[in-house]
Design a protein that fits this description.
206 residues; alpha/beta; Rossmann fold; Arc Repressor Mutant, subunit A; 2 domains
């Protein structure tokens, strides 16, 4: 029996997911919470196998919530309406084993719980298809970096630290780290100076 804790602040969504999971003979919903703080408290006492976690909660930064539950050793399935590559990668980097879109069929919700409890990963089919398409599209070298990554790279070239970039762009420092890592990987750079040099040579800082 897989024990599930649901952390979701929208009552209608929470009720719907509970109804879906309670139909499954091998899954039991042991608790529900509307905030990350309450979810962590319940996780400590109820010890669920899987936490179905809304990415956007009123009392937690989107990815801090994922990291907090991951530190507790829980299998996390992010349950969200957001499907950007940045959200997916940051959630997985934070420790999530699954990424499930709201509005997914009942069978997908149960499958995500089962797979992550078994130690496997799970991505909503729509997310998986989107990532595969992005990886296989043929792009020119100048198109490798997204607009946001180019913006981050320009600030790196200006000598700003990750914290300063976060403040300039009004995003979290964790997200900046994600972008910097992606820039290094795409440019084949080992450090910030090398990334700036490669980008300047390719005309990506204009």
């Amino acid at each position: 029996m897989t024990r599930v804790l649901i952390v979701e602040d929208h009552p209608i969504v929470l009720e719907g997911v509970m109804t879906v999971l309670e139909r499954e003979r091998d899954i039991k919903v042991v608790g529900a919470a509307e905030t990350a703080r309450e979810g962590l408290r319940l996780a400590a006492t109820l010890r669920p196998d899987v936490v179905l976690l809304d990415l956007k909660l009123p009392d937690a930064n989107a990815f801090d919530g994922v990291a907090s539950f991951a530190r507790e050793g829980r299998s996390i399935v992010v349950f969200t309406a957001y499907d950007s590559d940045e959200d997916v990668f940051c959630a997985i980097q934070g420790g999530a084993r699954g990424y499930l879109l709201k509005g997914s069929p009942a069978a997908d919700i149960a499958q995500a719980v089962r797979q992550t409890h078994a130690g496997e990963s799970y991505l909503s089919p729509r997310i998986a298809a989107k990532l595969v398409k992005g990886m296989t599209e043929t792009r020119g070298r100048s198109g490798l970096l997204s607009g946001r990554e180019r913006g981050v790279l320009r600030l790196v070239a200006a000598g700003q630290s990750n914290r300063q970039i976060a403040e300039t762009l009004k995003i979290s420092e964790r997200t900046v780290k994600f972008h910097v890592t992606a820039i290094f990987n795409k440019l084949g750079a080992d450090n910030r100076a090398q990334a700036v040099a490669i980008a300047a040579e390719r005309g990506l800082l204009r």
